[in-house]
From TrEMBL:
Produces ATP from ADP in the presence of a proton gradient across the membrane. This is ATP synthase epsilon chain. It is found in: Cell membrane. F-type ATPases have 2 components, CF(1) - the catalytic core - and CF(0) - the membrane proton channel. CF(1) has five subunits: alpha(3), beta(3), gamma(1), delta(1), epsilon(1). CF(0) has three main subunits: a, b and c. The lineage of its organism: Bacteria, Bacillati, Bacillota, Clostridia, Eubacteriales. Belongs to the ATPase epsilon chain family. It comes from Clostridium ljungdahlii (strain ATCC 55383 / DSM 13528 / PETC). Coiled coil: none annotated.
Amino acid sequence: MSEVLKLTILTPDREFYEGEVVEVITESIQGDIAILPDHMPLVTTLKPANTEIVQKDGKKLKAFTSTGVLEVINNELKILCDSCEWPDEIDIDRAKAAKERAEKRLVSQKDGVDVKRAEMALARALARINLK
Ligand code: ATP
């Protein structure tokens, strides 16, 4: 039995996090998931979420993680995400503006509005606002 997992979180722009952790809680398309050491192999799709990381030293971190893919194999947990931010990196005004834009698109439902895209933009904005 292992007491830790190696967590790597990558975006196209940067290596967001690498370290030994004891738990990661996030949201997949099937619902909330908690990954602990010795988790069975898993590949799943992530929704925009507030991801909680419990480090080996007991410190808890929270971060916004956007859509992506999560993979667990042999106590290595990899998250490949479109974007990630720590709370102090989030521009709250930008997130509020993104929320308003998405809500207007969803209410108007004019021809040409891509509903799924607007829903995802709203989910990203709400997760960022909730983390701030
Ligand atoms: P926007 O419409 O404001 O661009 P978005 O949800 O479409 O929001 P993303 O596609 O998720 O944006 O991210 C594009 C880039 O902008 C990423 O590098 C992401 O980290 C950054 N970003 C987006 N929104 C914010 C924010 N509110 N605060 C800080 N960085 C942000």
